[in-house]
Every structure is written in C-alpha cells, then in structure tokens.
Amino acid sequence: VTPVPSEIERALYQDRSHVVLVVEQRAAAALAAEVVRELRSPNRAEVVELAGRDTPAAMHRLLACLGVAGGGEPEIRARIELELLAKLQASLLLVIPDALEVDPAVLRSLADLSAASGNVLRLVLFAEPAAAGGADPAARLVKALGTGATKINLGPAVPTGNVPDDASPGPGPLPPVVPALGKRRSRPIAVRSSRSQRGRRRTRAGMGLAILLLAAPVVIWTSSGSAPIGSAVPALLPSLSPPVPSSTALASSPIPQPAGMNARVAASAHPFEAPRMPVGARPVEIGPAPVRLPMELRSEAAQQLPQPDRPAPKPSVRPVATVGVSLNASPFAEIEVDGRPVGATPIGNLRLAVGLHRIRATFPDGRRVDQILEVDRLQNHFRIR
Amino acid sequence: MWGTARARLAGGAVCLTLLLHLPAAGADAASGTGVEDFEAALTEIDELLAEAHFRTALGVADATRSWTDELPADPEIREQRARLQLMMATAQVALSQNAAARVSLRRALALEPRLQLDETTTSPKLLKIFREVRP
Lengths: 385, 135
Hints:
The structure holds two protein chains of two kinds.
Chain A: H1 4-15, E1 18-22, H2 25-39, E2 44-47, H3 55-65, H4 74-87, E3 92-96, H5 104-116, E4 121-127, H6 137-145, E5 149-153, E6 177-178, E7 189-190, H7 195-224, H8 229-236, E8 250-251, H9 261-268, H10 297-304, E9 322-329, E10 334-337, E11 340-344, E12 347-353, E13 355-362, E14 368-375, E15 381-384
Parallel strand pairs in A: 1-4, 1-5, 2-3, 3-4, 9-15
Antiparallel strand pairs in A: 6-7, 7-8, 9-12, 10-11, 10-13, 13-14
Helix pairs in contact in A: 3-4, 4-5, 5-6, 7-8
Chain B: H1 5-30, H2 34-50, H3 54-68, H4 75-94, H5 98-111, H6 124-133
Helix pairs in contact in B: 1-2, 1-3, 2-3, 2-4, 3-4, 4-5, 5-6
C-alpha cells in the first residue's frame, strides 16, 4: 500500500505548504472528503469552491471560511485575519477540488497570502492527470502556487490485494489504494482508474472469462468426476465480475479476505460508500464551533508519521521583525493595537511586528476610529484623523 | 488609509523643505524679520508632530531654538518661544523622554507663567507632567 496520505501530510506540514494531488476528477471529490476528514482535527479543513476569475470574490470566500463578515478590502482583511490566526498559532487548510477552474491569479493571491502569514493558510488542490501528449494541468497549478507547492501523483496504479486476484488475470494496472492517515487508517479508498485502464481491464477480464469457461469443464471433470457440469459453472461466474463498479469511487472496508471463492466475491460486492462530496461543494464546517483552534496538528502529524532513518528536521523559528511605530491624533486619543491598549497619543516608541495591525482610536468625545495599519521599516509614522 | 506612498513623499518633502529653509530663516532672523520665520518654523514643527514624526520635530525645534535665541525678547517672540518649548515637550513625551519634557515645560512656564493647557484636548501624558512642574 502506498502511504499516500502520509506523503500528503508530510508535504503540507514539513516539506512545503501546498500540494496538488493528481487524480481523476471524479475521484477528487471522494478523496477531498477523505483529506478533510483525516486532517480536520484539531485543525480546521474546508472544502471550498473557488471557481471563477475574481480575486476579491475568492478572498470573500476565504473570509467566509474564517467566519469573518465581508466588507472593506477583502484581500487586506484576509491578510489581517490570517496574521491573527498566526498569532494564535492556528491555521486553515483549504481543500479545493475544482482547482483547474480557478484562475491562476487567484491561486497566486492565495499563495501570497499564505506566505505573508507564515503559511497559516495551506492549500490542497486537485488536478486531473495530463492527457497523452497534452499539457500537464497539475504543473500549471504548481507554477501558480510558486515554490511552496509540490505535486503528488496518485495516478499510477499500485497493485494490492484489495481487489480479488482472479478478477484481473494479468499483471495489468489496478486502481491505486489510498489508505487513511496514520493510526486512524481504516478505510482505504479505491480511486477510479482512467478509461484506458478500465478498457484494458475489461479486455483482460473477457479473456480470462473465455479461458475459464473453456477450462471449467476440464476442472470440474478432474475434481468431481461425476458431478453435473451445470451446477459448477454458476459458482465460478460471479468471480469474473468486475471488482469495482466503474461509475463511482468506492471506499472498501478492510474486511478480511475469506478463503473460499464465493466468500471473496461476496466481500468485493459489499462496497462501503465513501462520504460523497460533490465537486465544488459548499464549505463544510469541520470540528468544534470555535473558529480559531490551536494548531497542534503539526506535532500530532509528526507523531503519526513513520519515523525516518534520518533525524526529523528541527522546526525553524523565524525571528519576528519589529519596528518602532509613532502615532499621533488631534485631539489626543486612547489607542488599542490588535485589541491591546497601548495608551494615549502621542506615542513615539511603540514596537510592532512588521505587517498589518488593527488600530482603534478612542477620542475624548467618545468617537471611535478603526483603521488598519500596514507597518514596515519605511512606513511607521501614522496620524489618526 | 494612512501611510500611503503619497504620505511618505509628503513627509519627506516637509523634511527637505525644512532643511533647505532653516539656514535662510536664520539669515532672516539676523536681519530682523524673524517673527514670521519663527511662526513658519512653529507651523512646520506642529505639522511634524501631527504626522507623528517626533524625532524630526524635536530636531527641527532644537535648531529653531538655537537661531531664535538671537531674536529680541519682545512679547510676541516670548510667546512663540513658550509654544516652541511646549512642542518640544510634546515630542519628548511621545518619545518617553519625560525628564526632558519636564525641563521643556518648566522653560515654557518661565517664558509664559500664565500658560494653561486645555484639559479636554491635551494628552493626559503631557498634562500629568505639566501638573507636576506647574508652581
């Protein structure tokens, strides 16, 4: 079994910040549900629809995921909210099943937001495999996301024992199996293979059927001698049915494989229907109600990951750049920065981290002014009006 | 929105104007036309304070004080000097230089003993020090 989800988790939280999963589009929905389910706790994961070519609309969608009402400049508000999430050591994972429908500029904006907020926002995108001789859609997505993204190919088949052996006589490709994450591994998802793979499998199944039909009388004759031929053939026929219905993506439960042929057929005919999530689904609220939860997933995921031979890389701690900020108001005002009172103006030596800050000024007459300051080394003197 | 590039440019332009303006102002003061230039310098310092450029305001105020020392001690100049000291105290309070602010406020009161601060519009930080130094 290929440890694909571990690979996803490692790519998301250790190597990079975003992943593009290359998988058949119709399987993407089920796999998205699986990713959301496995990565949801104690973090939040959202399946979002970001189809369209409007960056502000995408930012509004992101704000909605964060539980923030719209208004103002959505990109700046999204940056502020993500920076606040970073301060609270929380994060947001966006799962975008229909990523190819999203404008690359929107994806670039999301990646920029993620980078600006210290990778608080992580993206899981889905792309179909490249057609023969055609462009690779996943490469386009990775390019749009920049260096923080990587591609994980779920397309190539991985032979496993999950499908009855006698359904595929030859060593041909089988659907790849995507197990659940870490200790919670329970229900592998059989992802649909491509049409050409299905065609080859049908051809091989047909050939196997023909061979077995021809060989059946001989087998029956040699094993049971006088037994009537008609009673043995039906027992063989069900085993030749295709192992996985072609129209749906299935999650097969790990039922122990019985020894008998009929029992094996019965097991394969008992598919577990995975929680279906239509492509472009409405956002799904996962986990407890509070919006911002401490991000412990990283450490939890690290515990669940198989320990490699080499020592795990130490988490890098980036020093937060601060600058001295000056504020004044006329008349004077009591100032709060990011909800923290910092005193009355004039203020000439307030140390703030580079980035966006929410400022509230309360004037002597009770008037309040809320503003957003973008602080950097060149821009650190502000007049509140 | 504060702090736009335009505002930065404007702030830079103000500083540059002051730097270019001060030697000429000193020359004017020496020639006896210093009251208007003193007022112009005070306006510039006031704008720098409003824009929260406290260090720059303090530097310009120090320079202004040095060349206005040569001006005659008439009541108008005296009142301007008291305002200058008050502006210096404001910048010093902003920069947490409270000891220096006390000195500036004492000088202001020495120049203008009837000096009062509007308690409804003056920063409580400045008012507190003012009450400490007021006789």
